[in-house]
Amino acid sequence: MLNRQPGDRTLPTLITLLVLALLLMTFDIRAEGGGVIGILRTGTQTIVSPLQKAAAFAVNPVVDMVDSLTNVATLREQNQALQRRVAEAEAALVAVNDDLARLELYERLYELESTSAAIGRTVAQVIGRPPLEGALIIDKGTSDGIAVGQPVIDPNGYVVGSVVQVTPGSATVIPITVGRSHLTVAVGEQTGTVVPQIDTDVMRLDLDAEEPVAEGDQVVTSSGSVRFPSGYPVGYVLADASPTNDFLSTEIQPHVRPDTLRIVVVLAWPPDPVTAVTDTTTTSSTTPSTTTSVPESSSTTGGDG
After folding, report:
1. Which candidate, 249, 228, 237, places its Cα nearest to that of 303?
2. 214, 240 in Cβ contact below 8 A?
3. In this structure, what are the phi and psi dihedrals at residue 295, rounded to the nearest 5 degrees?
4. Among 174, 186, 177, residue whose Cα is nearest residue 266
5. Which of 20, 51, 53, 255 is deepest in the core (most CB within 10 A)?
6. 134: closest CA among 103, 179, 99, 77?
7. Is residue 176 within 8 Å of residue 160, measured between CB atoms?
8. Residue 130 vs residues 8, 134, 173: alpha-carbon distances, Å
9. pLDDT digits (tens, 9 = 90+) for 158-180
10. Which residues make Cβ contacts (< 8 Å) with residue 148, sequence separation at least 6?
């Protein structure tokens, strides 16, 4: 056992100090009016506050990143929706442009009809282009009144070529820029012929001329033509040229590029197709009655070849 020394006052002193401390704490608490709970709350807040700041420092970037990802997903969806709307608007614009082009085509056809109502015409669509031939296949044939020898123009009224072969549901058109056939034309008051050239769409113009021609002069079908009614535009002169011994030769650029055509117009010319076939075509014994061909001519004088 421990023996307490008579003069040892440590324990009583400790107890006295503890009591005084409690009294002082009680007095301080009452003086501030916070109560024990308030003191504990303040102490706890003091301890926790640094931890809260650390947690906020670590957690806030994560929260911001999640919010950013959510915003990105939302923006992506909105962007996709806008892209769909743009695609729909572009498709609608293409449809409108097609309608406008079709309307413009019909207006031109109507104008052609009104200016030369005496000549019947059939609108046809180009449905094929045989390779290496330069020909055009159209979706109208004998059942639509198409006959061999009839001239073909584009919706602007420019010369394209002639029908050379016909079936009940289709026809073959040879443009003026291929083959060896020539076309009787006029430049102003002077007449002559245009002839296709090999490996180019530029045509040669031969005129019985007393006057020069200038670059840009218009070349039209002549009244002496048996393949076309007169006055239809063929092309324009590419360079100035003067005659020599009443003869002039130069080049012209046709108005029409056959490889770009989608719609053509077949003219009922001459008005009597039977006479046209008799005068300008020959029938082969091995060819059906609905299929005839126009002989090509290398001549560059006289009427159409």
Report:
1. 228
2. yes
3. -70, 140
4. 174
5. 255
6. 179
7. yes
8. 130, 7, 11
9. 999 999 999 999 999 999 998 77
10. 163, 164, 165, 166, 273, 276, 277, 281, 292, 293, 294
Residues comprising the chain, all counted: 305
**Cβ-based neighbour number of residue 48 at 10 Å:** 11
- Residue of 256, 259, 254 lying closest to 129 (CA atoms): 259
Q: Give the pLDDT confidence of 118-165 residue by residue, as tens digits.
A: 678 899 999 999 876 789 999 999 999 999 999 999 988 999 999 999
The span from the first CA to the last CA of the chain, in angstroms, equals 150
* Residue 219, SS3 per DSSP: strand
Q: How far apart are CA 155 and CA 262, in angstroms?
A: 10
- Spatial CB neighbours of 98, under 8 Å, sequence gap ≥ 6: none
Distance CA 151, CA 157 (A): 11
With tokens 């048996």, the residue in question is 226
Question: Do residues 170 and 140 touch, judged by C-beta distance below 8 A?
Answer: yes
CA pair distance 294, 171, nearest whole angstrom:
13
Q: Read off the tokens for 17.
A: 């100090």
Reduced to 3 states (helix: H, G, I; strand: E, B; else coil), residue 93 is: helix
Question: Closest Cα to residue 147, out of 291, 10, 253, 18?
Answer: 291
CA–CA gap between residue 269 and residue 279 (Å, rounded): 13
Q: Token pair for residue 208?
A: 């019985």
- Cα separation of 232 and 302, whole Å? 19
